[in-house]
């Protein structure tokens, strides 16, 4: 299927947006009488994203599909994902976001440098990671999803919700500073998000999730000022872009290659930069452990 080009900064037809909003209200009014998949999939909005997606992801992964109403490729992908989430039995959830209606959430697309829809990310412990920016056949999607959640399970991040779990009934107290930061991220205000995460860390320096989110937010602010020529000329900047696009191992290996092949200030700059990127992932992430070993070998 042909994907639809999508500009994050383009104007949205107001009539189309109003129509989409009306349809969203109609679907919301019909919710609750659906089948088994309705227990685990839902529509998120600008107003509900923090509570329904970010907070829930602290316990159970949430896959998020950013779509456009009545776009055939988007509809096909969501239909396939709804089948898979129903089969998951509550071990993960699916949130669908109509980006023409919920424009504040374009901040996440900017953070992932997304230019086309549909786009699918997965939110784990409050952190969104890219998953898909294409519409694969159902068999390929099933295999990719199984691989993703197998990796999350291996890292102890996959939920074990009971078969009858209802996503909208879950409630858990969340640090309001985290909520403020996520709200700022959703509307694309990365400066405010960074400041909110700093406030969280000032109150609790051991908040590892806030440390990772602050690192990613500051990285996003940095990358926003890059142009293509800079990225092509500077491996440190290219590594930043790769990490934000989800190519974690590629980002690490690029910096390791600089460490191995350079000396003096250039070598040290790549080493320091790599250590900074490690902060964007959990300390027990196997990719971080592997890169740390490689860094030690390259230095000594």
Automatic annotation (TrEMBL):
Q: Sorted alphabetically, which Pfam families does this protein's record hold?
A: TPR_20
> Could you identify this protein by its name?
Tetratricopeptide repeat protein
Q: Which SUPFAM superfamilies match?
A: Thioredoxin-like
- Record InterPro entries: Thioredoxin-like_sf, TPR-like_helical_dom_sf
Q: Which domain of life is it from?
A: Bacteria
Source organism phylogeny: Bacteria, Bacillati, Actinomycetota, Actinomycetes, Streptosporangiales
The residues that cross the membrane are none
